[in-house]
Amino acid sequence: GVKRLSGGFVNVTWRIRLNAPYQDHTSIILKHAQPHLSSDEDFKIGVERSAYEYQALKAMSANQEVLGGGDSRVSVPEGLHYDVENNALIMQDVGTMKTLLDYATAKPSLSTEIASLVGTEIGAFIARLHNLGRKRRDQPAFKFFSGNIVGRTTADQLYQTIIPNAAKYGINDPLLPTVVKDLVEEVMNSEETLIMADLWSGNILLEFGEGNPSELKKIWLVDWELCKYGPASLDMGYFLGDCYLIARFQDELVGTTMRKAYLKSYARTAQDTMNYSKVTASIGAHLVMWTDFMKWGNDEEREEFVKKGV
């Protein structure tokens, strides 16, 4: 049976149940890349991004031990096959799960214990990813990600929404163009480390124990097509910015607990010190880019939050 899955701004995704197992899998996920967003035909995006996602999944599997191995709850689906002719990626079906976004916006939301655990686990995983990216920069399997031009230009396109988003809420700051120019320049050229580059609650799946909703077994990180060499602060800005949005508009305790746990865990595991001013700019950028898009709260609340971002 073939079932089209909802969600995903970028690709059309199907779950396919197989009559005969493929590499021991009886069900697989097929992602088909189109030259524009699945949700917006005017937002152009290169199809070669699937090749980067496939290689990212392979790299994560190959370096599982370095990324936390058996001690980590964070997992990445296995990349099974990439068809370059059809821009089709076949990967492991990890099952039907809700995203962190689903849980964070539900009433009641997540427990603080789970929120803390999620922040801790993801913080450690991303710190290890950044450590690994710095160490392996010159190895061909890693150097490859430096060429993810789609990953770089997508970040550029998103940064270009900052000034119009601020203007929409009547905010004109003379410094904004300079800040945006710096963010764009950095993401287009940075070779700092390997970044996931799409680290928000919509790409994080939570797997709980069967019949035991309080036992978090696994955290799946999905959607690796923007994975590239770039500034570590981009990953920080995405996750922490998302935590701020959740705290402001959904559940203050969950968002704040997750943010603090992530920061503490990242700082404990990372081999390089965090560049606080870059991280702060990246969080601000995230708030300006996504507050309007998420449409949480009312106009007044959103305006106040975009101001905070600026």
UniProtKB/TrEMBL annotation:
Pfam family, one: APH
InterPro entries: Aminoglycoside_PTrfase, Kinase-like_dom_sf
Domain annotation Aminoglycoside phosphotransferase: ranges: 2-255
Species name: Psilocybe subaeruginosa
MF GO annotations: ATP binding; kinase activity
Full protein name: Psilocybin-related phosphotransferase
Annotated PANTHER family: METHYLTHIORIBOSE KINASE
Parts of the chain that traverse the membrane: none
UniProt keywords, alphabetically: ATP-binding, Kinase, Nucleotide-binding, Transferase
Source species taxonomy: Eukaryota, Fungi, Dikarya, Basidiomycota, Agaricomycotina
Superkingdom of source: Eukaryota
Family the entry assigns: Belongs to the methylthioribose kinase family.
SUPFAM superfamilies: Protein kinase-like (PK-like)
